[in-house]
Write a structure and sequence with these properties.
Helices cover 19% and strands 33% of the residues. The chain is an alpha+beta fold. Helix 7 runs parallel beside helix 8, helix 9 packs parallel to helix 10 (486-499) and helix 10 runs parallel beside helix 11.
């Protein structure tokens, strides 16, 4: 039998016969020379240990199972199980570890593009699609990475181990399958459901972050809650009021600051009196340097390579330590924190920066694989909540599984800009298969403010934190508060609706004009559907055609992402003869062809 284990791995235009393997251990690199055993499996011996590999085919799929027996524990191990160059490429879709971080590449590319993805990536050409996948719940960290150059792809399947005290390691299987990408994603989803749930339509909410950011106050929250309660449409549909970052003394000390003089228990009570479920934002693993934990309880903190607590957390020039969730004292802190917040009246938690937990170099319990660290963070939180509140995971590593969260952010951070809308459309499209299967997808905020939908020409300058004393002037540092036109906002909100997931307003609603309020009322009162299928996800660089099932009908979205007028054929057999133009509120004859202005859409509902 051949000593080349990948010689039998071939699908359509893609052959991995020439793929190689190597391992890097604590700065030393070893090529793996596979030897075929009598039972058809493979082994490779190196000075640091023995590596095993089996290649099994079943139902048209190939499963690569691999492991290692090391001579001693290692600090850092990078195992490139399979690396192949010059794969032909027409179209690539890949998914990242957490919210955002997805990409679509249509070849040929003018300049080389590197990519890193987790869970699955799909190569497509005119004949079919090849999906390479790792399970969501991973034995060790596993990823696909590579480079697209012209019409070719270099692809590596990589496993990573850091500060793990074991010597026998089983890595997650890598699976290759060929066929319909939509059917393969459906199968992948079904096989990765850790806890089965029945999902109802998500309730719309309002969140303070995108407008107020760190200036949020008790007064501002109640002003918007009262506005919603007094609006004849918003009051019937918006059910949550979520206080985002800015309410706390600091990360790591989760008590109200001076902008919330009456305290969070009072605020939760007032929100409930108005008829809403109160929600609150927490970054459970972030600890700022002036928090008491950082000063007095630093044995609760994750460490540097050298073994000392370190400033591993960073976001917008804010730095902090990382709470070590493998320490029992940290688990107790998390259980008590969330029990207190629930008892204060909060029924919804937005947990943020969860993936930042993994930025620490090492943790106290080195028997815990890095792929399971965030599970150790989430378990005491869920124990503290004890089913009394819903949980949204933001910056949530999806490898943590669907056991711990009711909803998960899938979109990137949205802004009232056209570039932000385009970026988010890609991320929502690439993760459509998760919604109402694993959790409720959260595409980020349903913004309604723009240059035509508010009469207040304010600016907000969160990017000034990146401006240091030697910086030259850059317009990015003084970004305009809202740049989107009304038609661009219709695209943003249409993508939110087609996600089939969470709808959260995040404007100062008192400052929207009638056009802005009309957008807000329409988006929160719309019927929630399943996740829309991005019909051209595997053939187009921007997913422009979306088809969604509703409880009693459907929606079809067509988007012109281009900067010029475009003519489209609708070409969708599911479309009826007549449908409602959602944003215009008119019943129309469904056309066979349509011309769309730049940065605009047609959203049909029937």
């Amino acid at each position: 039998m051949s000593n080349q284990p990948f010689s039998v791995v071939a699908y359509g235009a893609w052959s991995f016969a020439s793929a190689g393997s190597y391992v890097e251990v604590d700065g030393n690199c070893f090529q793996l020379k596979w030897q075929c055993s009598a039972d058809g499996s493979y082994t490779a011996e190196t000075p640091v240990g023995v590596w095993t590999l089996s290649v099994n085919s079943c139902n048209g799929r190939t499963v690569l199972s691999t492991g290692a027996k090391l001579n001693s524990p290692v600090r850092h191990l990078k195992y490139v199980m399979m690396e192949c160059s010059d794969l032909p490429l027409e179209h690539l879709v890949y998914t990242g570890m957490k919210m955002g971080s997805c990409g679509i590449v249509t070849a040929p590319v003018a300049e080389s593009q590197e990519f890193t993805c987790f869970y699955n990536c799909i190569l497509s050409d005119k004949d079919g699609s090849l999906m390479l996948s790792h399970p969501l719940k991973q034995a060790q960290m596993a990823k696909f990475c590579g480079t697209v150059s012209g019409n070719s792809l270099t692809l590596s399947v990589v496993h990573l181990v850091d500060h793990y005290e074991g010597t026998e390691i089983t890595f997650s299987d890598t699976t290759l399958g060929y066929g319909s990408p939509f059917e393969m994603l459906q199968s992948y989803t079904d096989s990765n459901i850790e806890v089965k749930r029945e999902f109802t339509a998500p309730e719309p909410g309002w969140n303070s972050w995108d407008y107020y950011r760190w200036t949020v106050s008790e007064e501002a929250v109640l002003k918007n809650a009262e506005f919603i309660a007094n609006d004849p449409v918003l009051s019937r549909h918006v059910k949550r009021i979520i206080v985002d970052d800015g309410w706390q003394y600091c990360y790591g000390e989760w008590y109200a600051n001076h902008l919330f003089p009456s305290g969070m228990k009072f605020l939760a009570s007032e929100i409930r009196k108005l008829g809403f479920t109160p929600g609150v934002w927490v970054a459970p693993s972030a600890v700022e340097p002036h928090a008491r934990i950082a000063q007095l309880e630093y044995d609760m903190l994750a460490c540097s390579e050298g073994g000392q607590p370190c400033l591993a957390f960073h976001c917008m020039r804010r730095y902090g330590f990382i709470l070590d969730p493998t320490v029992e004292k940290s688990k107790k802190f998390l259980r008590e924190l969330f029990d207190r917040l629930v008892n204060d009246g909060f029924g919804y938690f937005k947990l943020d920066f969860l993936a930042s937990t993994l930025d620490a170099a090492q943790f106290y319990d080195k028997s815990v694989p890095r792929s399971e660290i965030v599970r150790h963070l989430m378990q005491p939180i869920c124990d503290g909540v004890a089913g009394r509140a819903a949980i949204l995971g933001c910056n949530y590593p999806f490898m943590t599984g669907n056991k711990y969260v009711d909803a998960a952010r899938v979109g990137s951070d949205i802004h009232s800009t056209w570039e932000g809308t385009k970026k988010n459309a890609v991320n929502v499209a690439c993760r459509y298969w998760m919604n109402k299967k694993l959790w409720i997808n959260d595409p980020d905020f349903a913004l309604c403010r723009g240059v035509e939908t508010t009469d207040f020409k304010e600016t907000i300058q969160p990017t000034l934190v990146f401006c240091d004393p030697k910086s030259e002037y850059k317009p990015f540092y003084s970004r305009t508060f809202a740049q989107s036109t009304e038609r661009e906002l219709e695209v943003l909100l249409s993508i939110s609706l087609m996600s089939g997931g969470a709808i959260n307003l995040s404007d100062d609603l008192t400052k929207l004009n009638e056009a802005g309020l009309d957008l807000a009322r329409k988006v929160v009162s719309a019927v929630s559907g399943s996740a829309a299928i991005p019909l051209d996800l595997f053939s187009n660089s921007m997913p422009s055609r979306w088809l969604q099932k509703l409880p009693h009908g459907g929606r079809f979205l067509l988007v012109n992402f281009m900067d010029e007028v475009q003519e489209f054929r609708l070409d969708c057999p599911e479309l009826p003869d007549k449908a409602t133009d959602f944003w215009r509120g008119k019943m129309i004859d469904v056309p066979h062809e349509i011309v769309l202005a730049p940065h605009s859409c047609l959203l049909l509902e029937w």
